[in-house]
Specification:
Layout (H helix, E strand, L loop, with lengths): L2 H12 L4 E4 L5 E4 L2 H6 L3 H4 L16 H10 L4 E2 L6 E4 L5 E13 L2 E10 L1 H45 L3 H32 L7 E4 H18 L3 E4 L5 E4 L1 H17 L5 E9 L2 E8 L32 H12 L2 E7 L3 E9 L23 E5 L3 H13 L3 E5 L2 H10 L6 E5 L8 H12 L5 E5 L14 E5 L4 H14 L1
Parallel strand pairs: 8-10, 14-15, 14-16, 16-17, 17-18
Antiparallel strand pairs: 1-2, 1-6, 3-5, 4-5, 5-6, 7-9, 10-11, 11-13, 12-13
Helix pairs in contact: 5-6, 5-10, 6-9, 7-8, 8-9, 11-12
Length: about 500
């Protein structure tokens, strides 16, 4: 062996991965020392064997064809990019591998050098990450339900207290309590939303939607908040149609408007839509603090918060991260322009759509008339929520019955001589019972036309509404005013 051959052999043996060199007939002509450690063969054992000895039995029949195609157009590449590869060790154990192929021109014809990397450790880590993600999803489902319950109770009690408070001082205390509760709800929703986006749980429902409908919803949601801070909330009329998920697009704009109001001390916040086919640009502009130029590149990062002076930043710095991830999910692009001390302009570019002019808008909805009494059946296994909801509805002039389980529902409806006018039930009850079973039992007793409000702290359960008529879904913690409006609407129509 000359010094060149000796050096080549040493280099191959020093390689971190097993290397097997094969001729066009599939015969192994060389194997380095690493094959012993990874595949269990001595390199002398493999020389002269067919390369298929290193492959699982199930793929040996098709491998010669793959080998022929490679030699017909030899080029350096990874093998099997589209599927998982496995090698068969001498002891019969399969291991996951990555294989890189490189053609080698020799005086005896073209050979192929195959570098085989054992990726068992990476596969194991990937599987552990999958399991950890599943465990996190299970935890989030449980935490979502358990954390929302006490907030829901406090919201109901605070709303009941607001209805009875006549003293200005007490009313002010209740208003401040409600702001703290709203802040708690927003923080919880942000944490859960970012986790659901990471886990791929959120799936967009892309349709054509009128932007004006979204604008009207946002105006109703933020008008009072802006007024309380002394800001002008200007929302332009938009005749555009977006090809998007209306709910997720609304959430994006909610985050942007909330941020604009938070960081604007004087002046205005404006929402407008600019038509630029084939897309729409929706802009949220403010006359607020502005963002330093050196922070513009990182404001969409998780937990990043813009310096707002001496005041402590609100929230966790997740809002814009949620905006970015949600926009990516919808195939939208986002951006920001800002001038320190003068304000900022965030924009979302949304694909344009088309829609019939005959579709009703929010302004077409009938006016809601307050109901004059009626009987409501409440089903929830949290006694505090039942008591708070019952108190609030009785103050609104309704008769209330309650139950905490299917057995109690059975006992309650057996004693009723007339059908309840409305059923309000939680989705998750104890012992694996669900609100769906409650709905079925009540409607079986009194008829399928009983309207239902279904509540849940588990936001993944919207799918349960499939096939249920006259059923409205609310996520805990519920906006109590929105809940009361819906109850009066239902009871006023019945």
């Amino acid at each position: 062996m000359d010094i060149t051959d000796e050096l080549a052999t040493q280099l191959l043996n020093a390689a971190p991965d097993p290397t097997v060199i094969v001729d066009q007939q599939g015969t192994i002509v060389y194997a380095n020392a690493r094959v012993t450690e990874v595949l269990g063969y001595s390199h002398q054992e493999l020389v002269g064997e067919m390369v298929e000895v290193l492959l699982p039995e199930r793929v040996r029949g098709t491998h010669p064809g793959h080998r022929e195609r490679f030699f017909s157009k030899p080029n350096a590449r990874a093998m099997g990019d589209a599927f998982d590869l496995y090698a068969l060790r001498k002891d019969g154990v399969e291991i996951p591998v990555e294989i890189s192929l490189s053609p080698v021109a020799t005086s005896n014809g073209t050979l192929v050098s195959s570098s085989v990397r054992d990726i068992s450790a990476q596969k194991e880590i990937a599987q552990q990450l999958v399991e950890a993600n599943r465990a996190k999803s299970r935890f989030l489902a449980a935490a979502s339900h358990d954390l929302r319950q006490p907030i829901q109770t406090l919201n109901l009690l605070n709303r009941a207290a607001k209805s009875t408070a006549t003293d200005t001082t007490h009313q002010d205390i209740i208003e401040k309590q409600q702001k703290s509760l709203d802040s708690m709800s927003n923080l919880l929703n942000a944490l859960l939303n970012i986790s659901k986006l990471e886990a791929g749980i959120v799936k967009p429902d892309i349709t054509d939607c009128k932007v004006q409908n979204i604008f009207e919803t946002l105006n109703a949601a933020f008008e009072a908040q802006a007024k309380d801070k002394g800001l002008d909330l200007i929302i332009d009329v938009c005749h555009g149609v977006a090809r998007s998920d209306a709910r997720l697009l609304t959430q994006i704009l909610e985050n942007l408007i909330a941020n604009a109001i938070r960081y604007t001390r004087v002046g205005l916040v404006r929402l407008r839509c600019v038509h630029d086919a084939p897309s729409l640009r929706i802009e949220v502009m403010d006359t607020g603090l502005g963002i330093p130029a050196d922070e513009l590149s990182c404001i969409f990062d998780e937990f990043h918060q813009v310096n707002s002076g001496s005041s402590r930043p609100e929230g966790l710095g997740l809002g814009l991260s949620i905006v970015k991830r949600t926009a990516e999910l919808l195939g939208c692009s986002i951006g920001v322009e800002s001038s320190l001390g003068k304000g900022s302009s965030f924009y979302v570019d949304v694909p344009a759509g088309t829609i019939s002019d005959v579709e009703s808008t929010q302004s077409d909805q009938p006016e809601i008339v307050a109901a004059k009494g009626g009987h409501v059946l409440i089903v929830d296994d949290e006694i505090a929520i039942v008591d708070a909801t019952s108190m609030l509805l009785e103050m609104e002039g309704f008769d209330v019955s309650s139950a905490a389980s299917l057995d109690e529902v059975e006992a309650t409806i057996t004693e009723l001589t007339n059908s309840p006018d409305l059923l309000i039930t939680d989705f998750h009850l104890r012992s694996g019972e669900t609100g769906l079973q409650v709905i079925s039992k009540v409607r079986e007793r009194f008829g399928s036309n009983i309207p239902v409000i279904l509540l849940s702290g588990d936001t993944s359960n919207r799918i349960v509404l499939a096939g249920l008529k006259d059923t409205t879904f609310f996520t805990k913690p519920v906006d109590v005013d929105a809940l009361l409006i819906k109850i009066h609407q239902i009871m006023g129509d019945s």
